[in-house]
Amino acid sequence: MEPGETFEEAAVREALEETGLPVRLKGLASVRDQIVREGRRVRFHYVIAVFAAEARGRLRAGSDAAAARWVPLPEAGRLDLTATTRSFLRSPR
Fold this sequence. Notes:
By secondary structure, the chain is of the alpha+beta class. It is built from three helices and two strands. Strand 1 and strand 2 (about 40-55) form a beta hairpin. The longest helix is centred in the first third of the chain and has 13 residues, at about 5-20. The two termini are about 20 Å apart. The model has no long low-confidence stretch (mean pLDDT about 90).
């Protein structure tokens, strides 16, 4: 998120930057914490908000990705995903 940006504004901006798709948010699907510790010390604490959205346009990879594609949910588990992403796919709420 950018300073002064709402969760919703950040989601719309990130979707466009990462996929080239303008989106209309339909609602908040899930919120999760991702806490990374080093011993007892908290190194990072991320709050991840996932929105349901309607996309328009042609999917394309952002500048930080080699490719972008639509994947049916049952096939997503075969991809190289982070543990956090896998947890959202298993239990989106």
